[in-house]
Amino acid sequence: MSPILSIEAVTKNFGGIQALNGVDLQLPDGDVKCIIGPNGCGKSTLFNIISGALPPTSGRVEFAGEDITGLTPPIISRLGVGRKFQVPAVFGDMTVTENIEIAAAAAKRAYLPLSMLRRRPDRSDYDRLLADSGLGDYAGVVASELPHGIKQRLEIMMLVTTSARLLLLDEPTAGMTEAETAATVALIRDIRANLGVSILVIEHDMAFVRELDCPVVVMMKGAVLTEGAYDDIKDDPEIRRAYLGEPVAC
């Protein structure tokens, strides 16, 4: 089976600074991978290139067999790539259900602003989605009043509502409690298992990476250092020195 995402020899230069140096990475369709690495190693730059926020200096990015190298973010989004940033981007003055409605309508390009005032979607369409994602109890709550972890969950589900085939999640558990982190792990697993969505995650929380139990890509100095299972990565002496610091119990 062809990978949903294929990154081939991607480089990115900012003047005399090389942020990415020949990155090769593949994500099989329907799989989940985590990217780890110290600050400044190129993780976010890689996401910017995949999503179209930045063009690569050289190299190629394919999504679902199509060359998307250098395409604009709106085009890449419409093709089925959804990106979540570290800070939740939700509509704070709207309820959880309304946020989901807006995301779905935008993806289908079904409503213009004026027509949305005259015709609203049937909210029962979203009941199961909200219930399955643990947002059912918050359906009528204004997003600005949500706990941080629930806002993060809402934004992930807004991306799912757009029928994205690939989710790019940038530190989805940043600022979360242990319980919220565990709930996010469960949500990502459910999205993959029930919807077949492919997910690429940037994360610093190694407890989250361990619990997600997926292949881990280690980046250093703008390149992929290695890839493997969490247990193999955490026991690699070079990685422990460069990323995890002095040997510690993991």
Number of helices: 10
CATH topology tier name of one domain? Rossmann fold
Please give the number of β-strands: 10
- Class based on secondary structure composition and strand pairing: alpha/beta
Largest sheet: 6 strands, mixed
Enzyme class: hydrolase
Organism: Oceanibacterium hippocampi
Pfam family, one: ABC_tran
Keywords: ATP-binding, Hydrolase, Nucleotide-binding, Transport
Task: Summarize the helices and strands and which ones pair or pack.
Elements: E1 3-14, E2 17-28, E3 32-36, H1 43-51, E4 58-63, E5 66-67, H2 73-79, E6 81-84, H3 96-108, H4 113-118, H5 127-132, H6 148-161, E7 166-170, H7 178-195, E8 198-202, H8 206-212, E9 216-220, E10 223-228, H9 230-234, H10 237-244
Parallel strand pairs: 3-8, 3-9, 6-7, 7-8
Antiparallel strand pairs: 1-2, 1-4, 4-5, 9-10
Helix pairs in contact: 3-6, 6-7
Could you walk me through the main structural features you see in this protein, from its secondary elements to its overall organization?
It is an enzyme of class 3 (hydrolase). This is Autoinducer 2 import ATP-binding protein LsrA. Keywords: ATP-binding, Hydrolase, Nucleotide-binding, Transport. GO terms for molecular function: ATP binding; ATP hydrolysis activity. Its EC number is 3.6.3.-. By secondary structure, the chain is α/β, with parallel strands linked by helices. It has a domain at 3-87 and 162-172 and 196-244: Rossmann fold (3-Layer(aba) Sandwich), CATH 3.40.50.300. The chain is 37% helix and 25% strand. It contains ten helices and ten strands. It has helices at 43-51, 73-79, 96-108, 113-118, 127-132, 148-161, 178-195, 206-212, 230-234, 237-244; strands spanning 3-14, 17-28, 32-36, 58-63, 66-67, 81-84, 166-170, 198-202, 216-220, 223-228. It has a six-stranded mixed sheet with strand order 6-7-8-3-9-10, with helices on both faces. Strands 2-1-4-5 form a four-stranded antiparallel sheet, covered by helices on one side. α7 links the parallel β7 (166-170) and β8 (198-202). α3 packs parallel to α6 and α6 runs parallel beside α7.
